[in-house]
Amino acid sequence: MKSKKLSILTNGIIKENPVLRLVLGTCPTLAVTTAAANGIGMGIAATIVLVCSNAAISLLRNFIPDKVRIPAFITVIAGFVSVVQMLVKAFAPAIDESLGIFLPLIVVNCIILARAEMFASKNPVLPSILDGLGMGIGFTATLTLMGAIRELLGAGTIFGMTVTAEFIDPMIIFLLPPGGFFVFGILVAASNALARRQGKPVVEHLGCANCPSRSACHNAVLDGEEKPVECAAKATEEPKQEKVEEIKETTQEEASEEAQEKIVEEAPQEVAEENEETSETVEETVVEETDEKVGGSNE
Fold first, then answer.
1. Cα atoms in the Cβ-side hemisphere of radius 13 Å centred on 18
2. Tens-place pLDDT, residues 205-234
3. What is the mean pLDDT of the chain?
4. Residue 161 pairs with which residues in a beta bridge?
5. Which residues pair with 162 in a beta bridge?
6. Pairing with 224, which of 17, 63, 250, 276 sits 20 to 30 Å away (CA)?
7. What would the DSSP string read from start to end of the chain?
């Protein structure tokens, strides 16, 4: 039992690191890691929300209807994010200013929503808390490492303390988006090399094998299967095509019914017009014959 709980805790730190292994949360990862302190601030905030939301969703998992579970999860997450944001503004205004809009955007952080969907909604409270804590530690460690590298190379400092700025000119590009992508790519490559050395699968694609919702998707193709990896969005193309065909058939049927109704409505009018023409012709014939008879009698 203890080994299982320890495995849940350490799973998100190395084996399924949300940033380097699952490639989740890349937007805040690239945006806020211009300094190591920013990485720690974002990581701690996300960890608190992860642990609290996992615990709450695990407690409510038997009461949340399946059809509205995603809106319910987001509502729970938004409540904890609001609390964390107010605490950061009150006690760490510098961090709040540095993180900016990315602090409230934790609400839609795919790491938190993925753990709620994949783990917390299917497991008891304690394992859910351990899962959130492990994922939060892995997220925080990655952001801090990435922020330290970019800050050291881009500003010559770490946590604001001068390290190399006095004898090496800082490379400002590492504080810009291109530098963020470069460092992120290097860390993912290092993670893949470590995984390959340990005999684990590397991150080669972003298909079902690395999708956090693969367990809940009935169209997912997991490792070891011979079918090509397909995304659930691609798998829904066939139902959409069928629906389009159904709509076309329905439209054609409605058009044919309208045409038939129109014919039925116009038919009596045409018959009435023909009757009128026939009656006029008969009247004219009768008048002519009457005139002829009258003329003959007079003679």
1. 30
2. 555 555 555 555 555 555 555 444 444 444
3. 79
4. 158
5. 157
6. 17
7. -HHHHHHHHHIIIIIT-TTTTS---HHHHHHHTTSHHHHHHHHHHHHHHHHHHHHHHHHTTTTS-GGGHHHHHHHHHHHHHHHHHHHHHHH-HHHHHHHGGGTGGGGG-HHHHHHHHHTGGGS-HHHHHHHHHHHHHHHHHHHHHHHHHHHHHHHSEETTEESSTTTS---GGGGSHHHHHHHHHHHHHHHHHHHHHTTPPP----SGGG-TTGGG-TT---TT-SSPP--HHHHTHHHHHHHHHHHHHHHHHHHHHHHHHHHHHHHHHHHHHHHHHHHHHHHHHHHHHHHHHHHHHH-
Q: Please give the pLDDT value at position 242.
A: 64
Q: Residue 229 has what pLDDT?
A: 43
The residue with tokens 């460092």 is 183
The residues with which 158 forms a beta bridge, in sequence order, are 161
Distance CA 49, CA 161 (A): 30
Identify whether the C-beta of residue 107 lies closer than 8 Å to the C-beta of residue 116. no
Residue reference for tokens 């400002």: 172
The CA distance from 36 to 175, in Å, is 12
**53, 116 Cβ separation under 8 angstroms:** yes
Q: Which residue has the higher pLDDT, 298 or 103?
A: 103
Q: How far apart are the first and last CA of the chain?
A: 132
**Claim: this prediction has a pTM higher than 0.85:** no
Angle, to 10 degrees, between the axis of helix 36-59 and the axis of helix 110-118?
30
Q: How far, in Å, CA of 35 to CA of 97, rounded?
A: 13
For residue 139, the number of C-alpha atoms closer than 13 Å in the C-beta half-sphere is 35
